[in-house]
Specification:
- Chain B: This is NADH-quinone oxidoreductase subunit NuoE.
- Chain B: Its EC number is 1.6.5.11.
- Chain B: Its cofactor is [2Fe-2S] cluster.
- The complex is a heterodimer of chains A (about 425) and B (about 150).
- Chain A is an alpha/beta fold and about 425 residues long.
- Chain A has helices at about 20-25, 30-35, 40-50, 60-65, 95-100, 100-115, 130-145, 175-180, 210-225, 225-230, 260-270, 305-310, 325-340, 345-365, 370-380, 390-395, 400-405, 410-415; strands at about 80-85, 120-125, 160-165, 205-210, 240-245, 250-255, 280-285, 315-320.
- In chain A, the strands form 2 sheets. In chain A, strands 3-2-1-4 form a 4-stranded parallel sheet, sandwiched between helices. A 4-stranded mixed sheet of chain A has the order 6-5-8-7, with helices on one face.
- In chain A, helix 5 (about 95-100) packs across helix 6 (about 100-115) and helix 6 (about 100-115) crosses helix 9.
- Chain B contains 7 helices and 4 strands.
- The two termini of chain B are about 30 Å apart.
- Chain B has about 150 residues and is α+β, with helices and mostly antiparallel strands.
- Chain B has a 4-stranded mixed sheet, with helices on one face.
- Chain B has 2 domains: about 5-65, Arc Repressor Mutant, subunit A (Orthogonal Bundle); about 75-150, Glutaredoxin (3-Layer(aba) Sandwich).
- The radius of gyration of chain B is 17 Å and the shape is elongated.
- In chain B, helix 1 runs antiparallel to helix 2 and helix 2 (about 25-35) packs across helix 3 (about 40-50).
- The chains are: A alpha/beta (about 425), B alpha+beta (about 150).
- Chains A and B meet through strand 3, strand 5, strand 8 and helix 13 of A and helix 2, helix 4 and helix 5 of B.
């Protein structure tokens, strides 16, 4: 099985060195890209079917096609790497940056070339100190080799890459909020339109892409869109980094064909539930995705099929709920996170989520009422898409709405017995 | 007054952006690296360097959770309280640390060695529960691992 993203990872968890990276075919995608017209690089990515790996799943090539190109396009144009991994339960981008930093850098250069960007910023989580050190070193090496900088490999193309260390807040993962953060402001989301592709960072055309997405780009250029599609088990191309956390025997992270069934990941790779515990449900792609249960375990983990099952692929890193853990407590933990991380810009979000969190906490403490259950259901509709400024709150209530659906008896038990049955 | 070193670090960052306001966060983090936190006086100094009002800078400082506007201990311990760590018993880790250091979450130990703060998902969910002390990530925490970690700091 081909593993383009993690195949070079070292077992000692050190970063792949530049020499080893080049020996394994690294920077050949860049060499090849520079011989093709930028728009044609975008076309290859479009044909490959690559979709954003940050959670939303937008087709990457299509996103790039909205960027104004050619002589009349405004400059500087920007490519921004969303390396602000903070979705609870998600630990894939950190691995990619720490263990193969040149792979990300090559992806950045090729993507930047495809949109004729002049400057790229890597927007990195402040807590990812190891990623920072390894990327900084890799960037310096890439500059020495003229993979980055002026007249890259004699092609006439120029690109600067800068590392930006963020100071926290989940909302920075929202692309327009991220742009405000990069401009040194509070990270509130912006109104769309204008879309960042046309007017983004400092008012100039900007593309924001997740780390895992960019790590695929030069492989596609090097090996072709058909190769990329062939890696996958379903219509969404490529491989995917899947993770499992929670009380399974072997929590971990694996690169597998896109569309690998949930059960295979859980049982074959994560080793199934720990002894004495039973599976109750999982969040398929981080905190802001709907719970799925036993009946969904044969779902192929890709964008379309997880959506058909009633959730989202999200980041592809599953969080597993066992039968000895309180689902109400788990949802309280999730909503506590979202209430805390709401940027405070629009009222439904900051007010609705703190209200939701308070109700869930009261239930856990044995102080909930039947009316509270109606209020929780109301919140899931009140915070639905279209009622809030950005996608933060609708994502925040996804685990709540599905928990009410699948674990409703547990919620009712909390209010009827005026206690948490797990305590 | 900003030190020469702080000023130099900030100017280096300014060269990477089209305007000075953009480095507001970098500049505050630079000051924090040297002083542990960002005081009112530092905000006034930064305001002059960046051409951004103190009020706007404070608005930015209070938005981001890694910028400290109050003094912190010599070391800052960030304890993950997000879902994967919660499932694996982060409440116990937090309670043990608080008891061991006789400090509530958000507080600083009497000897000024540690400040304990909650943090969101540290991206090491397959090794939950986790925490960071300064720049170091600690995984698979239990009481023994916590003791081991604490001995690394004076």
């Amino acid at each position: 099985m081909e593993k383009p993203l993690t195949g070079n990872f070292r077992s000692d968890k050190q970063a792949v060195s530049l020499e080893d990276y080049e020996r394994a075919g690294g920077y050949q995608g860049l060499h090849k890209a520079l011989t093709i017209a930028p728009a044609d690089v975008g076309e290859l990515v479009k044909k490959s079917g690559l979709r954003g790996r940050g959670g939303a799943g937008f087709p990457t090539g299509m996103k790039w096609s909205f960027v104004p190109m050619g002589k009349d396009a405004p400059h500087p144009k920007y490519l921004v790497v969303n390396a602000d991994e903070m979705e609870p339960g998600t630990f894939k981008d950190r691995a990619l940056m720490e263990r193969d930093p040149h792979q990300l850098i090559e992806g950045v250069i090729v993507a930047a070339y495809a949109i004729e960007a002049d400057i790229a910023y890597i927007f990195l989580r402040g807590e990812y100190v190891c990623s920072h050190d390894r990327l900084e070193r890799a960037l310096a090496e890439a500059k020495t080799k003229n993979y980055v900088g002026h007249n890259i490999l004699g092609s006439g193309y120029n690109l600067e890459i800068h590392l930006h260390v963020s100071a926290g807040r989940y909302i920075c993962g929202e692309e327009t909020a991220l742009l405000n953060a990069l401009e040194g402001k509070r990270a509130h989301p912006r109104t769309k339109p204008p879309f960042p592709q046309v007017s983004g960072l400092f008012g100039k055309p900007t593309i924001v892409q997740n780390v895992e997405t960019l790590c695929n780009v030069h492989h596609i250029v090097k090996n072709g869109p058909d190769w990329f599609r062939g890696l996958s088990k379903t219509e969404d191309g490529g491989t995917k980094l899947y993770g499992v956390s929670g009380k399974v025997k072997k929590p971990g992270l694996w690169e597998l064909p896109m569309g690998t069934p949930m059960r295979e990941i859980l049982e074959d790779h994560a080793g199934g539930m720990r002894d004495g515990l039973h599976f109750r449900g999982l969040l398929p792609g981080g905190a802001s995705t709907d719970f799925l249960i036993e009946e969904h375990l044969d779902t192929p983990m890709d964008y379309g099929n997880v959506q058909k099952a009633g959730s989202r692929l999200g980041t592809g890193t599953m969080v597993v709920l066992d039968d000895k853990t309180c689902p109400v407590g788990m949802v309280w933990n999730l909503e506590h996170f979202f209430a805390q991380e709401s940027c405070g810009w629009c009222t439904p979000c900051w007010s609705g989520l703190s209200w939701t969190e308070k109700i869930l906490l009261a239930m856990e403490q044995g102080k909930g009422s039947r009316q509270d259950l109606d209020t929780l259901t109301f919140q899931t509709k009140f915070l639905a898409p279209g009622n809030t400024f950005c996608a933060f709150a609708p994502g925040a209530v996804e685990p709540l709405q599905s928990a009410l659906k699948y674990f409703g008896d547990d919620f009712r038990k909390h209010v009827d017995e005026q206690r948490c049955p797990w305590k | 007054m900003l030190t020469t070193e702080e000023r130099q670090e900030i100017e280096e960052k300014i060269a990477e952006y089209p305007n000075r306001q953009a480095v507001s966060i970098d500049a505050m983090l630079a000051v924090q690296r040297h002083r542990g936190w960002v005081s009112d006086e530092s905000l006034r100094d930064l305001s002059e360097v960046l051409g951004v009002s103190v009020a706007d800078l404070d608005g930015v400082a209070t938005f981001y959770n890694l910028i400290h506007r109050k003094p912190v201990g010599k070391h800052v311990a960030l304890i993950c309280d997000s879902v994967s760590c919660w499932l694996m018993g982060s409440d116990k880790v937090r309670d043990h640390l608080c008891a061991r250091l006789s400090t509530p979450l958000g507080g600083t130990t009497a000897d000024g060695r540690f400040t304990l703060l909650p943090i969101v998902c540290l991206g090491a969910c397959d090794h939950a529960p986790t925490m960071m002390i300064d720049d170091e990530l600690y995984e698979d925490l239990d009481e023994e691992r916590i003791e081991e970690a604490l001995t690394q700091y004076d």
